[in-house]
Amino acid sequence: MDCYLPGCPPHPDLVVDMFNVLASGDLPPKGSTLSPPIALCAYCERNTTKPEVLRIKTLKRIHEVGLDSGDCFLAQGIICSGPATRSGCGTPCMKVNVPCRGCMGPVGGVRDPGMRYISTIASLVDAGTDESMREVLNGMGDAAGYLYRFTVGSAIL
Amino acid sequence: MGERITINPVTRLEGHGKIEIFLDDNGQVQDAYFQVTELRGFERFCVGRPVEELPRIMPNICGVCPTPHNLASLKAIDMVYGVAPTETAKLIRKLQLLAAYVEDHFLHFFFLSSPDFIVGSEKSPAERNILGVIKEAGLEIGRKVIEVRKRTREIIRLIAGKPAHPEAGLPGGVSRGISEEERGFVEETAKISIDFARFALKLFKEKVLSNKSNMDLILSDAYRLETCYMGLVDDYLRQNYYEGNLRVIDPKGKEIAFFHPRNYGEFIGEWVEEWTYVRLTHLRKVGWNGLNEGEGTSLYRVGPLGRFNVCEGMATPLAQKEYECMVSVLGKPCHLTMAYHRARLLEALQAAEEIYVIAKDPLLTGKDIRNTNLRMIGKGVSCVEACRGVLIHDYETDNQGLATKINLIVATQHNAAPICLSVKKAAKEFIKDGKVLNKDGLLNMVEMAFRAYDPCLGCATHTIGWRDLLIINVRDKKGNLIETIDTRSFK
């Protein structure tokens, strides 16, 4: 394999970019992933609604929230894999008002995306004790399913 | 001595399959098996997942027919959460399904099946593909197919984020409404799609039906199979792809079952055979009695031919007219496997007409897109007609809404056993006395037998005229390799 084209499926714009790169002959280094390595949040339309200090008091499932407010999903307590997911997809899920589930794979330089992301979420939880932290995180319901939706094959756990 | 002929991989279908043909001691075809060689595991690894996530996970079963899975899943989670979608949400979901019908049926006809008829089944694989069709029928066809598919997939993208893996939908509704500007796009797309569907049917009559060698094939015994048929119908017994009751008719056309999909377990049995990963469905009340056709068979077919046979008409006027024409020529029930192709175009026309009706409905742009009055029931069974046939999703959950049990019955499961029989019958015509007649072109006849069903084996890949990796192993009755035919050596 020479390069990775991420996405499930890869966005047509990424496919077109790939052909343009191939046609130019200016190939990236072997093993490159052909999309920006930074988190999806950088491109998300809801990023501007993210508070400066994001604190999660409860975790909610997508159906437990009323009609969409247009705000950052994580700020509403809804699991969104945007912070742990590579960008370049064009944010199709946000455009239909559902959170990211990680189909573009991990951001660059992360070995185990699930483990990195659970520590990210834990750092955002507003809990004073281990017990209250555990109570909030239990609200996730299906940690493995959210954290490793597309990447369980590369988990080191 | 008995021989075994393998066709692997089969071409111009979705997914990975293998055909094994067994000859008897006299060199005649004894048995044929269409084997599915991949195991997906969705029913297992979705256990433990929050059930409201399943509409986003299930479409990953397939990149060609993901929309029916998304919608069947949404309908099932509506039941799990004891909620009915709003009227606007239901219209948007139906629109999504119908857009998928138009684009998928045209994909199959123009890219996968028409090359055999419009280019000719005796031509080489290098010509027998969409480019050959364009050469025969004109460049404009290529442009039109792409335009119609692009527009209908854009409709799906507007509703569900990604055409190839819909991401949207919630229990009780949808996650995004349709604007007035988008409604205009839908209406325009409907008009273009209706015109193109009518053109495709005209092309079918001109290029397929008027050709003698095509008709010899279509009417041959090799491509005739007497089975029962199953499909969704509305209250007037017309074709309905989104909801209704399931109707089953026997090979003579008599209704033998009519039930709500939630009761599927009483009527549909799943039989396990060791040579394939597909569980073979059959009519439970008849009882599994093997790969047999005719009176007393427990096998039934679904998909376009199934729907054509079980319905008493189409739900839209132009499609109804074409249906009446098809009935006057073929009669009912029609057991000709190649009739799947015409029935497919009939459905594309109904779907396009239904899209137009939805586009004109003022509720389509309504703001009430979600019913949030949820209550945990913990069980949901749903059914939609996927392009390939009846699709059932059956979920059970714990009181937190995490899935505890999942059963999926997909279209190609219903057709898997009939496909074996179709392959066997086609093989009998073209493999005789231990000899494969015209190895290249005529072996394609065996593939045509299954291709009519548009089987989807859970994978987005398919090959177009990809003959390079077709390797046929001829074996004796004990499985010893006698000869390997490597078609890469063919010119």
SSE pattern of chain B: EEEHHHHHHHHEEEHEEEHHHEEEHEEHEE
DSSP E strands of chain B, number? 16
Beta-strand residue percentage of chain A: under 5%
Q: Low-confidence runs of chain A (pLDDT<50, min 5 residues)?
A: none
Give the CATH level 1 class of the domain at 84-223 and 336-364 in chain B: Mainly Alpha
As a whole number of angstroms, the C-alpha radius of gyration of chain A is 17 Å
Q: How far apart lie the N and C ends of chain A?
A: 25 Å
Mean pLDDT of chain A: 90
Q: Output the CATH topology of the domain at 84-223 and 336-364 in chain B.
A: Cytochrome-c3 Hydrogenase, chain B
The proportion of residues forming helix of chain B, as a percent range, comes to 40-55%
Regarding quaternary structure, what we see is heterodimer
**Class based on secondary structure composition and strand pairing of chain B:** alpha+beta
Main β sheet profile of chain B? 5 strands, antiparallel
CATH architecture term of the domain at 84-223 and 336-364 in chain B = Orthogonal Bundle
Strands side by side in the biggest sheet of chain B: 3-2-1-15-16
Overall SS class of chain A: mainly alpha
